[in-house]
Amino acid sequence: MPLNLEPNFAEPGRRYFRDFSAGDDFYQLLIDAHRDLTDEQSALLNAKLVLLLANHVGDIGVIREALQRAREDVAG
Fold first, then answer.
1. Which of 16, 40, 42, 64 can bridge 21 by disulfide, Cβ–Cβ 3.0-4.6 Å?
2. What are the C-alpha distances in Å from 52 to residues 19, 49, 58, 73?
3. What whole-number percentage of the chain has pLDDT above 90?
4. What is the spatial distance between Cα 71 and Cα 67, in angstroms, rounded to a whole number?
């Protein structure tokens, strides 16, 4: 399975009228999850989320590519 770089957010059974609406829903969920957390708690939430989603993906090759792409332009 190749890493999907196209918008791919959806909620089964829900129709969206704009392509970006489901992505907006995801972003709101992410912001809400971080609300009222300290920086340390927020970092822990992110780490746990990455591990949960990586386990869900399951394909080490896809995870490797995602990590490489996420790191691009981050570490100087």
1. 16
2. 26, 5, 10, 24
3. 67
4. 6
